[in-house]
Write the structure tokens for this entry.
Amino acid sequence: HELGGNRMTWMPTVKKLLGQHHVVLVDLPGHGDSPLPDPFTLEAAAEALDLVLARQDPDSTVIVGKGLGGTLSLMALKAHPGRARGVVLVETGLKSPLPIDDQDIRYFQAHMERNYDAVLKMIFSRTGRDSAQGVIIHATAAQTPPSTVKSYISATLRADANPALKSLQVPYLFVGTDRLFKDGRTPGAVLKTLGYEDTAAVAFRRIKDAGYLVMQDQPDTLAAVISDFAARALAKKKK
């Protein structure tokens, strides 16, 4: 799941997968029932996620991560190759498309400390496909401990997951929704805004009539995309 979410946001899609797949739902570190690493780094959060991956059968595991969940999955696989046979990245960014210097980061962190509620609302309420869904997304994020949200935001401002993506030894698929295709953007332009350095190498699937909560907006379509990718990824392993 994404920053500020929890594993239960995936339930509509999970219900469509359960007939053919064993599904393990994970609360990312600092969310739900999962504690935030102390001291916090993205690497420590990825290691915490790996504790779950290490208990699965690597020959039949496909990881599906949305946003932050995809970033941590890539980092976990870079540190521990062989945990999975494929990765689905749902609207996962790799780094900021524009350089951010340390002074700007410190300014934003100070602003977030002083005006946390306003910053949280600004970030999450605008992500819905409409204002009503934006309220739901913001309300869910507001249940996440502020220390978790602040820690991840501060860390991701400096992060670059391109090396982790390039190190992957298994197939991966990027899934995007209509909310990314503003002003007639192409898939390559979408990936560029999300910090992907080699946009031509990314397999891309677009799901229409969906937004930030694609797993709830289009559960049938997303489940079908995941199942199709999983079948191809696992078949490739058998050859």
